[in-house]
Amino acid sequence: MVSEAGEEAHAAALVGLAGMTPVRLAAVLSRWEPTEAWGLLRAGRHPADPDRRFAADVRLVDPEEEGARYIRAGVAVLRRSSARYPAPLRSDPGAPAVLFAHGDPTCLEDRRRVAIVGTRSATPYGRDVASELGRDLAAAGVTVVSGLARGIDGAAHAGALRCGAGDPAPPVAVVGTGLDVVYPKTNGGLWVEIARCGALLSESPLGTQPLPRVFPARNRIIAALSDVVVVVESHHGGGSLTTAEAAARRGIPVCAVPGSVRSRSSEGTNGLLVDGCVPVRDAADVLVAVSLARVGRERPAPGQGTATLVAARGRDRRGTVAAIPDRGIPARSGGSRDNGRTPEPGSPQRAVLEAVDHTPTTVETILLRSGLSIASTAEACERLVAAGLLRSGAGWWARR
Predict the structure, then answer these.
(1) Strand 228-231 relative to strand 112-117, pairing
(2) Is the whole-model pTM more than 0.85?
(3) What is the pLDDT of residue 321?
């Protein structure tokens, strides 16, 4: 029987084979342990390699040496079955078959998680907003996830690291290079601090340089790790929009920070607003979005479309960031009891129930129909789900 260390060494060696892509790796490991897959490739009998493209390279690589190289670099090799593989990512259909980590990848568990992404050529306004969001979210116990790129990503993580709270949430970065290749160099300090306080993640093997093709692929991981994705600044067709698209495909709410209509750096984010994303004004808006997303934990069923975008308008702005609870908004006294009966006329629960259809109804539709604030809507939805009167998905509700 091969040890776990042996399996990890073979997994690392598989990822490092020339021409091995995330899709090919998933096929190679779909039914086999890494050592078994390695042997089949070496013998030219692996069903996922009918052309024997990897057979020659496999004979030239020593998996034990590859495993030792990762140990020397302080980089953990995580398979989807590994105990330390990030739990939020494990069930995602696009999750890497093998993930590399520097730091503590388990820091994501049992935490609210928000991705803050945006353009590399950020304006001072965009950097300031990203930094403030990162700082306030980390202080509220929310893990900030980003790509650690120049511009918005780096500003968000810089803010998270200087939040000044007694027990800030650990930051997490998903990079496109190998974990021994710091990119961009200007974020070297952030790289070290994030690895020390949180986790650096990558699906790229050691030595991978910042090639353009690796960054769009890593954006799906950023989206999959998050409860909500916030785009701060993006040019039209900017790379951060691929993160928003990946989130939408997964039913993960996408929010956007409004910018000047005269700023090219806000063309993409303003376009998201036109398409249905509702503005994020501050961390409190994001926290409400996270609370709503966590109320509807189920993903939309096939055929129900992509993500429902969480509305951040209508919130009572007298509330504070710290007042938003970790797991939804707790029920208050008054109104209907969670006994499955129709709520009392005039109650928020009755207004929400009447605003919801038998087919999935978005947050925005419920807000418009009920006239309630977003906080009252979230509370009413939670109570109605508990009462068995509504079923929930990622940002939608429907009558049972």
Answers:
(1) parallel
(2) no
(3) 39
